[in-house]
Specification:
The chain is mainly alpha-helical. The protein is built from 10 helices and no strands. It is elongated, with a radius of gyration of 20 Å.
């Protein structure tokens, strides 16, 4: 891929990005990590991989406006059309579209090509470690969701099994479980290096809140009596 082609793809990506938690810097991080992983996967086609990384989140705006939509499916369709309109051949557009449509893999549409697996891992890595914590807090703040929930007795809940959205709930529901889901050896290696920081942050926040709710309620009741 030459610089002119790269700029064409990059400029289209930039025109689509609005979500603060999935902004252009998220795209660049995914791209750079994907290139790192690709060094250990010599069969990967870098042209397909770079295009897929740049365009993988271009459907975010549509999903934000209509949460019933899947940004991966919308983005795959948009990317396919854009690539064909700009002279890329259909097989290339098909491969890039597959990578994008499967990067959010949840059930019956797993990544098949090595490029799709690399994109999947690179995107998931941005939800691990301190970056994953920071991005989750940023996203939760945009929707005015709390850090944690409190039960009917005034105790801080740790997020386990909760339905009410909060940072703790998201950590237990999603972030904690990411580390066993990587598809490449390098992806798994990078994820495990980041895991300790995320676990430490969660445990520290829990220990900085829960005990003081318990002690504080007792002190408040003593004062009010």
């Amino acid at each position: 891929m030459n610089k002119k082609t790269y700029k064409l793809l990059e400029n289209y990506m930039l025109s689509c990005m609005e979500d603060s938690a999935h902004d252009k810097e998220h795209v660049y991080r995914v791209l750079y990590v994907a290139l790192d992983i690709a060094k250990t996967e010599p069969s990967a086609n870098l042209d397909i991989l770079v295009a897929a990384c740049l365009l993988h989140d271009i459907g975010r705006r549509e999903q934000f406006e209509n949460p019933a939509l899947c940004h991966a499916q919308v983005g795959a369709k948009k990317a396919h059309g854009f690539l064909l309109e700009n002279g890329f051949d259909e097989s290339f557009a098909d491969e890039v579209s597959h990578c994008i449509s499967t990067h959010r893999f949840r059930g019956d549409n797993p990544p098949q090509s090595i490029e799709a697996k690399i994109l999947f891992d690179a995107d998931k890595l941005d939800a691990t470690g301190t970056l994953g914590i920071a991005r989750t807090l940023q996203y939760k703040s945009a929707f005015r969701e709390p850090l944690y929930s409190v039960d009917e007795n005034g105790c801080v809940l740790d997020g386990t099994g909760e339905a009410t959205p909060s940072f703790f709930q998201e950590y237990k529901f999603k972030l904690e479980k990411l580390y066993s889901r990587f598809l490449t050896e390098r992806g798994r290696e990078l994820a495990l290096k980041r895991r300790e920081a995320a676990v430490s942050f969660y445990n520290a926040m829990l220990s900085e809140t829960r005990p003081f709710y318990e002690k504080g309620r007792a002190l408040l009741n003593e004062y009010l009596e």
